[in-house]
Amino acid sequence: MRAAREWSLGAVLAETAVDPFTHLLVVRPEISPSMGRDLERRLLGHRLAGCTSLIVVVAGRDRISGALISALRRAQRKIGSRNGRLSVTAETSESRRVLECAGFDVIDIDGDMPLPERLRRLDAQLAGGPPRSVTEISR
């Protein structure tokens, strides 16, 4: 059973469950420190609810804020200490390189196709089935 996508006006633009133990979240690249704390709590809440693998996609082509990197690093430590895994990816190769330098487990997805198509392929790869419809989750 797949959960319905959830939309938010905070740091998280979209969220979907790949399977009962894997959630994919699309986040804004520029967030404030308070949005970062909310994001960190949200990610940790998923782990405490039984989700063992979280995938964060940084949407957009803007620079990645320090608040986002800090929030993801704190969440990665807390999720890792609870036997979970936080993986990240970004829309551009430059942003993925920034995330790699910050010490994240970066998933490389093809940068030549539009983000919704890349997310469908990533979702299918993680779920082990055919791609499902992920509609315009990035602006």
Q: What's the layout of helices and strands?
A:
Blueprint: E1 6-7, E2 12-19, E3 22-27, H1 33-48, E4 53-58, H2 66-80, E5 85-90, H3 93-101, E6 105-106, H4 115-127
Parallel strand pairs: 3-4, 4-5, 5-6
Antiparallel strand pairs: 1-2, 2-3
Helix pairs in contact: 1-2
Describe the structure.
The protein has one domain: 2-Layer Sandwich (Transcription Regulator spoIIAA). Helix content is 38%, strand content 22%. It contains 4 helices and 6 strands; from the N terminus they run E-E-E-H-E-H-E-H-E-H. Strands 1-2-3-4-5-6 form a 6-stranded mixed beta sheet. Strand 2 and strand 3 form a beta hairpin. The longest helix has 16 residues. It is globular.
Q: Round the Cα radius of gyration to an integer and report it.
A: 14 Å
Shape: globular
Q: Would you count the extended β strands for me?
A: 6
Low-confidence stretches: 1-7, 130-139
**Major sheet size, sense and barrel closure:** 6 strands, mixed
By DSSP (H or I, 4+ residues per run), the number of helices equals 4
CATH superfamily: STAS domain
User: In whole angstroms, how far apart are the ends?
Assistant: 27 Å
Average residue-wise pLDDT: 79
Residue fraction in strands? 15-25%
Please give the domain count.
1
CATH topology name: Transcription Regulator spoIIAA
